[in-house]
Write a structure and sequence with these properties.
This protein has 8 helices and 12 strands. The chain has 295 residues and is α+β, with helices and mostly antiparallel strands.
Length: 295
């Protein structure tokens, strides 16, 4: 009986030490990641005009008319069927930041085994109304070669559109940008979004690098269970999407607390069972002793 009690205290102590270590070294804590911007240096006024406002749950204007790489104009809803959609507001002649954003999407999706066109769609929209379908087609060809997955062209769309149409979409995305006459460039933040098949915004990711697991989990959640194995669906419950950082963080501390409580309850039940067995054995022994004495 003493060995059981000793083991119980060792387990409880170990759980307490693990929880303390997790808290001390930041396991499961969330870190804010600031969004990078395409703001030219020396333009403080433009800084006030750009940014990203998260419109989580907002409905996108699916009637917005945009041109595909072949020059055919279609409503945005043409790219929303039964699959989640990754959206990236950029412009194709951007000298640096937009290229890094699209490269970040490619890098992240290379390690996601879902297939564009089959499991999800990627919609890259130019915020520059002067850009043409021919330019979009060239960019699509170049980036798909970099992506290197045969058949992916069915799920990647590089779109252009009139200023009023693009502005409506950008406003719904919460994506604010401004034209800088001095540099002849657009000032904008770096962010991509994920939307449900119905066109509701569900996730925002910032910066120019997007972790494969973050993209994978966002697609699983946004798809409403239509993609992802049962194992991935269960794994998703172990992570928490933080809209402030645009990251999924493991819920380690919560899991440790739950596990600790369950372990203590299990050990308490086990100890109670052994005590009951020991008391029962003593009572049986006493009855036997009395019976022998009576004889």
């Amino acid at each position: 009986m003493k060995s059981v009690l000793n083991t119980a205290w060792v387990v409880v102590l170990a759980l307490g030490l693990y929880g303390a270590a997790a808290a001390q070294y930041g396991v499961g804590q969330q870190v804010e990641i600031p969004a990078q911007t395409g703001l030219p240096s020396g333009s403080p006024e433009l800084l006030k005009q750009i940014g990203v406002t998260q419109n989580l749950g907002a409905q996108l204007p699916l009637d917005v008319q945009l041109r595909d790489e072949t020059g055919i104009e279609r409503p945005l809803r043409a790219y929303f069927t039964d699959k989640p959609v990754i959206l990236a507001p950029v412009y194709f002649s951007c000298p640096m930041l937009c290229t890094q954003i699209i490269n970040g999407i490619i890098k992240g999706l290379r390690e996601v085994h879902y297939m564009p066109g089959q499991d999800f769609e990627v919609v890259i929209v130019s915020i520059d109304p002067r850009e043409t379908a021919e330019l979009a087609a060239g960019k699509k060809s170049s980036y798909l070669k970099r992506y290197g997955r045969p058949g992916a062209e069915q799920g990647w769309h590089f779109l252009t559109g009139r200023e009023e149409e693009v502005s409506r979409l950008a406003a719904a995305l919460g994506f604010r940008y401004a034209w800088d006459e001095a540099t002849q460039q657009y000032a904008h933040a770096s962010a991509i979004m994920v939307a449900t098949p119905q066109g509701q915004l569900s996730h925002y990711f910032y910066g120019v690098e997007y972790r494969p697991n973050d993209l994978r989990f966002a697609l699983i959640q946004s798809s409403q269970g239509k993609i992802g194995s049962p194992v991935e669906q269960v794994l998703l419950y172990c992570f928490h999407y933080d809209p402030v950082t645009g990251r999924y963080t493991p819920m380690i501390l919560t899991a440790v607390k739950i596990f600790a409580v369950l372990t203590v309850l299990a050990l308490g039940s086990l100890i109670g069972y052994f005590l009951w067995q020991e008391r029962k054995a003593r009572q049986t022994s006493a009855v036997t002793t009395q019976a022998v004495g009576a004889e």
